[in-house]
Task: structure prediction
Amino acid sequence: MIIDEMDANRFSGYFDWIGTGNASGREYFRGTYDLQTRRLSIQGYRLDNPRGNIGLGSYQAILNMNGNDFTSGRWSGGGVWEATRQN
Result:
């Protein structure tokens, strides 16, 4: 996930997806974060070069107290989602 614009509790950016087989593409998103509830909400709005089972998704999650890991979350969209955090 690359965040390229941030304003208060709103942000936007993109995911570069690489899936099994030839599935790949870039999904652009907009999101919000509530500091009090630690709720993260992300909504995909555009795909570039989608191949395979890549589709727009909707993501909801709660971040831990440190703000660096998810304590719970859900995803809706095509395929199976897995993320790896890179420092």
